[in-house]
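Take one protein record:
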Amino acid sequence: MLFRSGGEVVFVVLPFTDDYQQKERALAPRAEYWDRLLARTGAPGIHFEDFPSLSGFDCPDGCHLDSRDAPRFTRALLDALQPALAGTAWELEPGAPLRTVMRPSTGSDR
């Protein structure tokens, strides 16, 4: 239904570390879940392990980022999203300030 109504989906796996990483790999092997999800839906996906700019963040409890990393992570995520959103109503302007609110394009502003 989402796609039929013109919706766009990008699946994202956010950073996790330590025990969470071990549990995730044991309970939901990437090839069996992540790769199959993208193949079945045809939607783009961003997995933090595929983007050096999204890796290496501190997750004090294993699955939540340190709040001090928010600006750097947000910029890295927006940069990773740009190719996935290119040509869609949610295409991002390169280098847009983080405070910019994303809004769908009307089509007339392209």
Q: What stands out?
A: Helices lie at 18-27, 34-41, 70-85. The first strand starts at residue 11 and ends at 13. Residues 2 and 75 are 27 Å apart (CA to CA). Residues 11-85 form one domain.
